[in-house]
């Protein structure tokens, strides 16, 4: 395994001791000697993806830590797409994602001193939308995933976004939040059954680097998650799996590939940059599989956030 481990570090990548200390307060940092359990065929396939990575112009000079802001609440809207217009959430003013994005922009300052994290944010994703629902196909209704709370808002209509989020977000950010009670109070809410969501930026029309790398990462995640019994496709609703989805622009395309990992039970977000296909088996085995995640590369961390347990 020495050969594959050598792929993971570039001499220019680095992290200062203070950043490493901050990261270690949220997630354990391991020494990089763990084995990913990849076979020779998988290693060769991953290495091909790394060759593509090495051919892209990636910034290895700027330190990654604190180059992104962890969300207080992150809304993820299904679109069944893997790429979008430049301003993905603003394509259609009548859409749910437009209204959610605008609501977040208007209320960020209002909630600046409440809860863990720094921002209210919205993304569109490759998660499947209900193509049998006319209003969903028009964009005026959709289910919305709420992270890090692992809650779905079901059937949210675009003209009800202001009212719904105005009632819901203060409760989500309250230190007294009890999710079971919240679900009883709001019939349109349900729990997401996944143990984690892995969101990979694939926004080609915004920057081709993420668009080029995202399919390689998705394939690597899916294949290695299958070995661990954690892979879930869109028709597999068994609980405690891992859902890997594409999302639009997250910022920092020069740090591609960007990967946001939301873990349910530790209530942690780990946001990584400069992720290569050969990193993926170690992300699965060290972060997604264990009850207590471990991290090999503090130099790849853009931000981490520990949230309250609900």
UniProtKB/TrEMBL annotation:
Transmembrane segments: none annotated. This is Actin patches distal protein 1. InterPro entries: Aim32/Apd1-like, Thioredoxin-like_sf. It comes from Torulaspora globosa. CDD domains: TRX_Fd_Sucrase (cd03062). PANTHER family: ACTIN PATCHES DISTAL PROTEIN 1. Pfam families: Suc_Fer-like (PF06999).
């Amino acid at each position: 395994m020495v050969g594959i481990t050598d792929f993971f570090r570039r001499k220019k990548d680095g992290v200062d001791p203070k950043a490493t200390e901050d990261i270690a307060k949220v997630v354990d940092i391991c020494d990089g000697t763990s084995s990913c359990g990849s076979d020779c065929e998988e290693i060769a396939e991953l290495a091909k993806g790394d060759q593509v990575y090495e051919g892209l112009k990636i910034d290895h000079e700027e330190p990654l830590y604190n180059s992104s802001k962890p969300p207080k609440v992150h809304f993820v809207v299904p679109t069944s797409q893997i790429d979008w217009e430049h301003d993905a959430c603003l394509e259609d003013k009548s859409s749910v994602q437009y209204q959610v994005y605008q609501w977040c922009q208007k209320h960020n300052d209002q909630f600046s001193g409440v809860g863990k994290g720094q921002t209210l944010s919205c993304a569109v994703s490759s998660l499947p939308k209900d193509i049998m629902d006319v209003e969903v196909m028009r964009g005026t209704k959709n289910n919305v995933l709420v992270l890090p709370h692992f809650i779905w808002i079901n059937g949210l209509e675009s003209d009800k976004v202001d009212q719904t989020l105005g009632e819901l977000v203060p409760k989500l950010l309250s230190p007294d939040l009890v999710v079971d009670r919240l679900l009883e109070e709001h019939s349109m809410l349900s729990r997401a059954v996944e143990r984690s969501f892995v969101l990979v930026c694939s926004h080609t029309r915004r920057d081709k680097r993420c668009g080029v790398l995202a399919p390689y990462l998705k394939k690597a995640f899916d294949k290695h998650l299958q070995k661990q019994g954690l892979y879930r496709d869109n028709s597999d609703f068994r609980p405690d799996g891992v859902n890997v989805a594409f999302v639009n622009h997250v910022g920092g395309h020069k740090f591609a590939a960007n990967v946001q990992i939301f873990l349910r039970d530790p209530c942690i977000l780990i946001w990584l940059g400069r992720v290569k296909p050969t990193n993926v088996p170690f992300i699965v085995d060290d972060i997604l599989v264990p009850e207590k995640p471990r991290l090999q590369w503090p130099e790849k961390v853009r931000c981490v956030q520990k949230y309250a347990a609900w």
